[in-house]
Known about the structure:
Blueprint: H1 2-47, H2 49-76, E1 88-90, E2 93-95, H3 105-111, H4 114-145, H5 152-164, H6 167-177, H7 184-191, H8 203-231, H9 235-243, H10 248-259, H11 261-276, H12 279-285, H13 297-306, H14 313-340
Antiparallel strand pairs: 1-2
Amino acid sequence: MAAHTSQSVAKAAGSDGQDTVAARGRSRRTDSAKTGNSGGLRRALATHWYAWAMVAPVVLVLGVIIGWPLVRGIYLSLTDANERNVARIIGVRHIDATYKFVGLDNYTAVLGDPVFLQRLAWTIAWTVLCVSITFTLGLALANMLNRDFRGRAAYRMALILPWAVPGFVSVFAWRFLFNRDSGILNKILDGGGISAIPWLDDPTWAKFSVVAVNVWLGIPFMMVALLGGLQSIPAELYEAAEMDGATAWQRFRHITLPGLRTVSMTVILLSTIWTFNMFPVIFLLTRGGPGDSTEILVTQAFREAFVASPRDFAGSATWGVLILALLMIFALVYRRSLRKQGEVW
């Protein structure tokens, strides 16, 4: 009995000693990991201090230009701020702000408003149409310019020209072309015995017009990006496929499209984000009209902040935050789909 007790005590003491040693080992590893992490950070800062110094001003500027307005917008979306209750100065008199925190009431109101669903539906349709048409035409033109023919440089310059012209200048030029009474397009149609088309006065034609102008503005970027991708595909692949008897369509399907996958995914993402937020084309060409048939989410946010009376700053901020949330969700889903396809992005 005594021997058994002494053995139990010895085992307990041994196990306690092992636990103590293991705990000390874990604490030492934790301390060393902390020391290693901090030491690695110090070494990185000491080694790459010049790079950090060069990046710091950019980070600071982006924080001031983007970070602060974003935080301010999110805060305003949680209040009832409008033109009448924000801080303002009238003459020499300063009036303090009187708006209150209302939580998620603005989001509930906007998401429950049928106007939001209407704007969202047209924004999605507008984005899908513009991106798909721009990508298709850009790919076709890139394939044409990737071949050797006389005057290729001149054609490249002509096709890139819309990209070089400021966007508002291009939109005003197209607005003149679409004018119902004195526009060049209707003059040409009139010469052919066709009655004038209300390009900007009819809801259906107005939607067609804004899509056409945005496609015209977006083709140069898409074409240049895809042309660069085409030129990175080895010519030996086409030569081997041609020797094996592959047709032009088979070469395009099995060589060109897979070779352009990485570039295509990137330009489609960028084009989607740009088109979703394409304020100048809609506002300068139709101002959201006729009526509100061409209003998208960003023009509605602008209207809430600068056109409505009283100007609803909280409502506009709410629309802006929702737009950001939608784009972030799309980007995350898009990135996950790329990872499933084996693309690194």
